Amino acid sequence: MPGWAEDNRSAVQEYPFDFERYIEEQLRKISDLDERKYAKEVLLHGLGRMIACTEEKYKKLERRIYEETEIVANRYETAMTIIQKKHYDPTNETLFPVEPLDLEEEKLAGKLTVDRQIFLGTIFLEADDDMQERFLKEGNFSGDLGQREVRVEICPAERYQKIIEQLYHIFLDNHVPWQTIHTGYLDKFYDMYLDLSETGDENSTQVQGDEKTGRLTLEEIQIQYGEYERFVKTDILPLWNVEWLSFDSADFMLPGTDGICYEHEFSLEDQEEQDGYLISSNEEILEIRHEKKKIVIRSRKETFEGWKALHIIRLPAVRSLDYDAPFLTNQRQDSFFRRYAAGCSVPLLTKADLFRRIMELDVRDYIEAEGYEICGHTEDFPAVRGMNWFVRDELFPMESRRILLIRFREVKAGHYLNGCMVRFVISQIQMEISEYRCVGVIE
Q1: Which of the two ends of the chain, N or C, has the fewest CB atoms closer than 10 A to its terminal CB?
Q2: For residues 1 and 5, what is the distance between their CA atoms, to the nearest angstrom?
Q3: Phi and psi dihedrals of 222, rounded to 5?
Q4: How confident is the model at residue 443 (pLDDT cuts 50, 70, 90)?
Q5: pLDDT of 211
Q6: DSSP-assigned letter for residue 161
Q7: pTM, full prediction
Q8: Is 24 exposed, middle or buried (0-12, 13-18, 19+ CB in 10 A)?
Q9: Which of 403, 402, 406, 411 minimizes the C-alpha distance to 371?
Q10: In this predicted structure, which of 57-61, 163-167, 278-282, 428-432 has the lowest mean pLDDT?
Q11: CB of 181 closer than 8 Å to CB of 164
Q12: Minimal CA–CA distance to 146: which of 213, 194, 114, 112?
């Protein structure tokens, strides 16, 4: 049936039965041409039209129920991509650096340089999860600094992980349900450090850096990455559809007061209706309350300055010139079954519902769910760091749960993002299913 892929039923149901094709195939079996002509007139033009009319009525009924069963639009969906730093477009109002300091290299180096550990820069490893694990186990690489050999140490770029954890707590403070952020790109960034104790220099000023900045950078050192050479990318900048805003009490109307606390209103009247806004809590804020067209902030402070808010731009994000990398999003595909399930007080725990949840996630171009099984031997499946590592579940310890093993098939065989797509799916499904410890494998 044409357009079935865009139909709301197609998220779960199989391709519909093609009555017209079936009738045509059966008519071929009639050898007498006159009988075949008569049967075609009766079956195809008579019964076929009746079937088509019935299908059209069901389709209209489904559309009516679909439109009546509406879910609240998610204003807090995120999208992430990577670009060459030189291609960054500051006029793009939908994509911003995950870490604004990435655009201020000297400040970033000053912040990350500790004692005799000199921050050189950040690299992106365009490789799958298995190669990432081997790369991290290497620990360090040799390099040439002028006429000397030096050792360069590597470690995951923790500043990005801290930002995601901070975002999680902002969601909690605003009483907005958390949805897993796809950190597939962020997990592939590594910071590079030069340990001066390895160079034998007693004074860091003996190490000559860039002539313009006086700072030692990755470009000054010829690093031998070995087998990882072609996978290492430099000057890569992660972007997402999240913008930090700063506001003062002067931005508000007069605050209300009950004699003890003040209620400041962050007005959303002039903001984009489809965008999401969250207030970053601090020691001066007692309560954050979302109401229609405004966010109420309760505080003992009558005046304030420098409070922070997060502005999440409604998807889809806009691609500027040379923004070529795929978007990694936590957006869900809309469907009739999703809308219906959202209205159910008791969630279904069936194979069809599990696969529906997986297929709704934005991973269909990379992986597909093939099957699942329940396993009791937890020791056969060591814990893997997920994308919600900062979420704690003290009620049901992971060690005591049975394993829900979900098997996936690669759509893009060998693509370096396939592994992180599985981790994203498992991280989100784990948030929804507490009875089991979820594990994903690619077959």
Answers
A1: C
A2: 9
A3: -90, 100
A4: confident
A5: 44
A6: H
A7: 0.78
A8: middle
A9: 406
A10: 57-61
A11: yes
A12: 194
Q: What phi and psi values does residue 136 have, to the nearest 5 degrees?
A: -70, -35
What DSSP string runs through 48-83?
A: HHHHHHHHHHHHHHHHHHHHHSPPPP-TT--EEEEE
DSSP per residue over 321-350, as a string?
TT--SPPEE--B---HHHHHHHT-SS---S
User: Per the structure block, which two tokens stand in for 32?
Assistant: 């007498």
Please check whether residue 337 is in contact with residue 355, taking contact to mean a CB–CB distance below 8 angstroms.
no
Q: Which two tokens stand for residue 178?
A: 């958390």
Nearest to 1 by CA among 61, 58, 85: 58
Return d(Cα 77, Cα 330) in angstroms, integer.
6
Cα dihedral: 29, 33, 38, 42 (round 10)? 30
Give DSSP secondary structure letters for 191-203.
EEEEEHHHHT-SS
Structural contact between residues 62 and 55, judged by C-beta atoms closer than 8 angstroms: no
- Measured CA to CA, the distance from residue 266 to residue 244 in angstroms comes to 15
Residues linked to residue 442 through DSSP beta bridges, in sequence order? 408
Q: Which amino acid is at 25?
A: E
Q: DSSP string of 373-411? A: EEE--GGGS-----TTTT----SS-GGGSEEEEEEEEES
Alpha carbons 307 and 292: distance in angstroms, whole number: 21
Q: What is the pLDDT of residues 303-327, one digit of tens each?
A: 888 899 999 998 889 999 999 999 9
- Residue 56 CA neighbour count, 13 Å, CB half: 6
Burial (CB < 10 A; 0-12, 13-18, 19+), residue 61, is exposed
> Is residue 290 classed as helix, strand or coil in its secondary structure?
strand
DSSP state of 11: G
CA distances from 197 to 117, 201, 202, 208 (A): 8, 7, 8, 15
CB-based contact 125:231 (threshold 8 Å):
yes
Give 226-231 contacts, CB < 8 A, sequence gap 24+. Answer: 226/141, 228/125, 228/127, 228/131, 228/135, 231/125, 231/126, 231/127, 231/131
Q: How far apart are the first and last CA of the chain?
A: 31
- Contact, 108 vs 330, CB < 8 A? no
Look at the alpha carbons of 372, 374, 379, 383 in this order and tell me if their dihedral is positive or negative. positive
Cβ atoms of 402 and 374 closer than 8 Å:
yes
pLDDT at position 126 = 96
User: Taking a C-beta distance cutoff of 8 angstroms, is the pair 167, 181 a contact?
Assistant: yes
Helix (H) or strand (E) holding 131: helix 129-138
Q: Please tell me the distance from the alpha carbon of residue 253 to that of residue 302, in angstroms, as a whole number.
A: 12
